[in-house]
Amino acid sequence: MASSQIRLKILPSVRCLYDKLVQVKVEGLAPHKQVQLSSKLVDDRGVIFKASALYKADETGQVDVCRTPSLGGSYTGVEPMGLFWALAPEKPHSKFLKKNVLSPTAVEIKAMCRETGEELASETNERGYMTEGMKRIPVQEGRIRGVLFIPPGEGPFPGIVDLYTFGGRLTEARASLLANKGFVCLALAYFGYEDLPKNPKKLDLEYFEEAVTYLRRRPEVKGPGVGIISISHSGGLALSMSSFLSGISAAVCINTCNANTVIPLHYKDMVLPPLPPVIWKLRITRYGLLNIRNCLSDPSLEKNRASLIPIERASCQFLFAVSEDDYNWNSPLYAEQATATLRKHGKKSFEVVTYPKAGHFLEVPHMPYCPSAFHAAVGREVVFGGEPKAHAEAQLDLWERVQEFFKSHLH
Q1: How far apart are CA 381 and CA 290, in angstroms?
Q2: Which 3 state secondary structure label does DSSP give 17?
Q3: What does the alpha-carbon distance between residue 166 and residue 350 come to, in Å, rounded to a whole number?
Q4: CA distances from 322 to 162, 283, 336, 357, 363 (A)
Q5: In the chain, helix, strand, coil percent, each to 5?
Q6: pLDDT at residue 168 in the model
Q7: Alpha helix locations (H) across 180-302?
Q8: Cα of 41 vs its chain's centroid, Å
Q9: CA 360, 366, 367, 371 torsion: positive or negative?
Q10: Which phi and psi (to 5°) does residue 11 adopt?
């Protein structure tokens, strides 16, 4: 099999936005020849992620991953984006990290001879975050720290505050990709970033109020209200913002708790204490990882009422995304309690979407699945649940729903 005749193609182009589907094809193989396809990326921490799958060429000597089934490896069956979502870290318990969205994530794809391991062909897919003409503006306005993404073209556009998970830093990937869809997105840090405190003893809701006011006053932002997208710990912040602040029209809460967690939340003269942990419910997996799914008190119990977020006060629309296999905490229970509260107060302003075998970190499409990683609030590695394929499908489905939800309620 002469490797000079073998070509690996990434269609429609080797360059695309991160959330886009691509078609990987290998041509010029011997008919019915088996070939190993592998993918590799290096994240911004230097962690290497890899996946591989075994394919068999058709009678014309071609493998098209959109039609040809994988016979084994990181996944099996017809999986057009399997070489992307199945990427797993070489260093265990590493979550994919993208800090700088000004550069693309490069995914190297190789076709190799199964028998000899010889490389037959390779190509690199550059998966970018910002479309041409988009503005990325670092924000240092009063206390606010973050990055603003403004789509190209004539505004004004609907505005969204993007809050990421506990652990500090700023995560720009989701905000930049949402901005490609026609939203002005403020990726907002709330601790451990620039001059924000690294280990805050409390969080001020006034900080988030400043951010909402800042976004609503931007000339590129179309009012009257803005949206919030949140995940994990920041979901409680999104619920609190919706309950106490004005100017919020729509909130996406991904695997969220309906009570305040980890750090006391202050607003004017009110304090929401964190929901207390139940340490004896901690479990250790056979791999020595912590399973913390049931380690928070039930928010609905009388003794925990002070931590419960009064979402009956909110006037916005909610989208609750729930992974049933979330091991970070009991997301299905919290969503059930939150929607029961809204119903009890005569509100139908919510949608719930559940994903049976998905884990905690529902990210943008094709992002590597994270089964376990260091947990900033726990100080140890924990399991996050889910199955890779089901998780990848959930990310794809949720991404479309999020866009539709914001288009419906922010226009």
Answers
A1: 7
A2: strand
A3: 24
A4: 18, 22, 10, 10, 13
A5: 20, 35, 45
A6: 62
A7: 205-217, 233-244
A8: 18
A9: positive
A10: -115, 150
| 109 membership: H or E segment, kind and range | strand 105-113
C-beta separation of 146 from 170 below 8 A: yes
3-state secondary structure of 404: helix
Which residue, chain included where needed, has tokens 């041409």?
132
pTM higher than the cut 0.85: yes
CB 1 within 8 A of CB 30: yes
Instruction: Copy the structure tokens of residue 99.
Output: 């800090």
Name the region of 304 (left: φ>0; alpha: ψ -120 to 50; beta: rest).
alpha
Residues carrying an active site annotation: 232, 326, 360
Which two tokens mark 157? Answer: 């556009």
Alpha carbon 145 to chain centroid, angstroms: 20
With beta carbons less than 8 A apart as the criterion, state whether 275 and 296 touch: yes
pLDDT at 1: 46
In whole angstroms, give the CA distance from residue 40 to residue 52: 9
Taking the chain (411 residues) in runs of 10, the rounded mean pLDDT of each run is 79 97 97 97 96 97 97 97 97 92 97 93 98 96 96 94 84 97 97 90 96 97 96 96 97 97 95 92 86 90 96 97 96 97 96 97 95 86 94 98 98 76
